[in-house]
Amino acid sequence: MQQKSPIVVIMGTGAGKSMAFMLPASCSTGVTIVIVPLTSLRGNLKDRCDEVGIECVEWESRKPHEWASVILVTPESAVSDGFGNFINRQRAMGRLDRIVIDECHVVLDSTGGWRTRMLALRDLVKAETQLVYLTATMRPKEEGEFIRLMGLPPKEMCQWFRGVTTRKNVEYQVQMYNREEEDEVLSKLVEEKKRQYPMPGQIIVYCDMVEKAVRFATMLKCVCYHRQVGSGSEKSELVRQLTEGRQQVFTATNALGLGVDAPTIRVVIHVGVVRKLRDYAQESGRAGRDGLKSEAIILRGVAPRGKNGVAPGGKSCVDLPLWGRKCACPWGRGAEHETPNPINSQQRKKEEATSSRARLPPGASSVAVA
After folding, report:
1. How far is the C-alpha of 109 from the C-alpha of 112, rounded, in Å?
2. pLDDT digits (tens, 9 = 90+) for 228-268
3. Residues 58-112: pLDDT tens digits?
4. Is domain 170-369 given the CATH code 3.40.50.300 in the classification?
5. How many other C-beta atoms are found inside a 10 Å radius of the C-beta of residue 209?
6. Cβ pair 112, 149 in contact under 8 A
């Protein structure tokens, strides 16, 4: 972390990216600004800084803290006039050490109308300080787009560090089930994993909708986390129940998907369709952060069999979100084939239109991903 800029760090989940700013901050009398996209992650980072004696505060525009070592701020607040004035004051006093954008890959999703103010983070280059970008999920082919969106110089002029992002201790699999039996299948799976990984082992069930997360939490009698679950302090308390190992099972939306450091999560379950590979990499990366054997399971519901043995709509294994890996069709004749990338919906539609209709499995089955 010498005074070079910009620095882009791509390392696997749980590999210690936060040390890139926590360690320098612990040795400095200046201020490090950390831009964090999610409330759950901000609270978790603050707890981790407090544990090691780093003075850390979350930004409040009404009473800005001028002398903390680490300031945590949302992307939207970071580009406000009030925070811009704060940066100018810190720079004038010679206290501005660096600006860190944590989970910086989120900007890649901000071009379609979601959190578009994040694109204004490119103006931070005007702050004339060290800029550090941290993420675990940026594919090499996305680097050019990231550089363009952030207004960075060409890659060869940046300090670019790419580490290993694979997680060999996490076993990935897809389990098929009858969609009409979703509650029963999930309940049995969670109970099985609770026995297999007793406390302090933990389980997170990710859902694509708040309503589903709340319903499953009621059914499983567990904690539920989503964006509207409560105030900032209430959300922080729920995250602590996870990171401190006080509860075994949680249901959640992607509001709990980035960066939260809970080392004893043994199983991550996704119910339904996984829409973005980046989100799945982050959420499944909550498992096994301590390096021990863990599991990431996608529960993929299929429609019940019709009279002719074919599901309505002719669903086949191209629906499995295996992202181009080989799979052995569990209800076909054992032939292996490349599964399509679900990001390319047009390609998927063409393949579905030309493929023959496959028979559904007689019962729940699973396809493991190497």
Report:
1. 7
2. 888 888 888 888 899 889 999 999 998 887 767 788 999 99
3. 998 888 788 899 999 998 899 999 999 999 999 999 999 999 999 898 898 887 6
4. yes
5. 12
6. no
**Span 7-162: which CATH code?**
3.40.50.300
* Closest by CA position to 255, among listed 207, 313, 191, 188: 207
End-to-end CA distance of the chain: 36
- Inter-CA distances, 167 with 226, 281, 290, 295, Å: 26, 10, 11, 11
Q: How far apart, in whole angstroms, are the C-alpha atoms of residue 202 and residue 193?
A: 9
For the chain, helix, strand, coil in percent to 5 are: 35, 20, 40
H or E, element range at 205: strand 202-207
Q: What is the DSSP string of 16-35?
A: -TTHHHHHHHHT-SSEEEEE
Integer-rounded Cα Rg, in Å, for the chain is 22
**Whole-number Å distance between alpha carbons of 176 and 355:** 20
Retrieve residue 198's tokens: 């007793």
Q: Where are the domains of the chain?
A: 7-162, 170-369
- Would 7-162 and 170-369 be classified into the same CATH topology? yes
Question: What is d(CA 342, CA 18) in angstroms, rounded to the nearest whole number?
Answer: 31
- DSSP-derived secondary structure for 249-261: EEEE-GGG-SS--
- Secondary structure letter of residue 154 according to DSSP: P
Which phi and psi angles does 361 have, rounded to 5°? Answer: -70, 145
Give the predicted TM-score (pTM) of the model: 0.68
* Residue in the block written with tokens 């005074």: 3
